Amino acid sequence: MAKKRKQQSTAEEQRQSRKEILLARKEAKQNRQIRLAVLGIIALLVVVFGIGIVNEVFVKPTQPVASVNGVEISLGDFQDRVRFQRAQLIIGIQDLEETVGGDIGLVQQFAGQQLNLLAPQESQINQMGQLVLQDMIDNELIRQEAERRGITVTDAEVDARIEENFNYYGGESPTPFPTPTQTVMPTPSITPIPTAVITDVVPTNTPAPTATTGPTSTPLPTATAVSSESFQDELTTTLDRFRSFGVEESTYREFIREQLYREKLTEVLADEQGFLTEDEHVSFYLISFETEQEANETLAVLEDEDFLTVWNTIRSRPNDPESQDTANASEVLWRRKDSIETSYGAEVANAAFELEIGENSGILVEEATTENDTTSYYLINVSGREVRPLSDSVIQQEKDQVMTDWLAGQTQANVETLDLWQNNVPSQPSLDTRFYVQPTEVPVQPTIPLPEVPQDGGGEQ
Fold first, then answer.
1. Mean pLDDT calculated for residue range 132-158
2. 178: helix, coil or strand?
3. What 3-state class would DSSP assign to 190?
4. Which of 60, 148, 378, 404 is the most exposed place for a label (fewest CB within 10 A)?
5. Taking Cα atoms as reference points, which of 354, 343, 351 lies closest to residue 376?
6. Beta strand extents in 359-442 (DSSP E only)
């Protein structure tokens, strides 16, 4: 009996053992499948992550954001230039802060546009990107045209411009400005302004004392030569500042190279147009009014009186804030036609170049162009007209306009801008937020009344 029970127990154990083995095998198979699935998911994630890294680091930066005559501007180059532009603005703002002694209010006053471009809002970040992209397109157009014309910029020229930017001229002082020569003034073409107008209001002028004779001119100080060591220190400091913002020296040098290409091509285009170095200028006396009635009344007076007499009477009139008279007399000296048109309108400009010297004009009207403007009425008398040399600043403005017009025509015909840049504009480097904090207003100090002082000596006798 006991033997039979033992045999049954052994058989039961064997059945349980086989069952456990089968379950163990099943669990092992399931675990193996789970591990394989997990490994597969991990492998897939690694592949996806790797593809993402390759795309972001190697593929995406090479994709174009614009095409200029078939030459592509890559996203990577675009992002490098945006970072450079941001760094350049930040360095300028930091230098300005140091110049004004850390006064953030003055920085905000003098660098408002730069601060606006560096603002962290998405709209401002995209505005910066758009400006940079257009500048890169312009630079590529300029470079292509320059190469077509055989214009080149060498590394030596880039080095020389960098040295010039740091006022380094091989250890020598910069070239001094030429000694100014005396300008021959034209002979007045009409009667000079009277020395005084006799009225009941304007008193006779008291003669001023004779001025003590002083030196004829004070010589300008000689510029201090920048040494090679000083130049290298300043350049290294500047490049280190750019590197701290993630900008490499190559980007800085490329920026200088593009400036030189633009300058050289601008000179060539201006020369081809027979660029003016002198132009006709005019001077005239002007009386302005805010009402047509005042202009008509003064015009009637001019039928019997000399223009200069009327002009000088208005000019000499004392300021009266309560007066309703809007007449104002001024003198416009040696202006070109486009400059006069910008300031006073086309009617005044045309009259100034058509009237005979000494001839009075009729009423000239400049209509209001906006709701805030008022219509102005003018009377003029031309005092001189002659061809005069253009200033260096005016000549440069005219040359820059030649380049602007040329670029506008090229951009319309040969440039394609792609949308990839819009979601990939760098927001770094960023400007410290302290520059956007409104300065604290200085509290108004309370006025402390002073004790009254007796007028009779302080008491009764």
1. 94
2. coil
3. coil
4. 148
5. 343
6. 364-366, 376-389, 415-417
Furthest-apart CA atoms within the chain: distance in Å: 158
* Chain segment 201-251, per-residue pLDDT in tens: 444 444 444 444 444 444 545 556 788 899 999 999 999 999 999 999 999
Q: Is the dihedral of CA 406, 411, 415, 419 positive or negative?
A: positive
Query: How does DSSP assign 271-337, residue by residue?
Result: HHTT--SEEEEEEEEEEEESSHHHHHHHHHHTTTS-HHHHHHHHHHPPP-TT-----EEEEEEEE-H
pLDDT in tens, 49-72: 655 554 555 456 789 889 998 889
- Measure Cα distances from 98 to 22, 231, 460 in Å: 81, 20, 62
Please give the pLDDT value at position 171: 66
Whole-number percent of the chain with pLDDT over 70: 75
Phi/psi at 429 (5° precision): -70, 155
Residue type at 154?
T
Whether the pTM exceeds 0.70: the reply is no
pLDDT at res. 271: 87
- The rounded radius of gyration (Å) of the Cα atoms in the chain is 39
DSSP symbols for 81-104? HHHHHHHHHHHHHHHHHHHTTT-H
> How many CB atoms are closer than 10 A to CB 187?
6
Distances (CA, A) of 136 to 13, 93, 176, 401: 85, 23, 35, 18
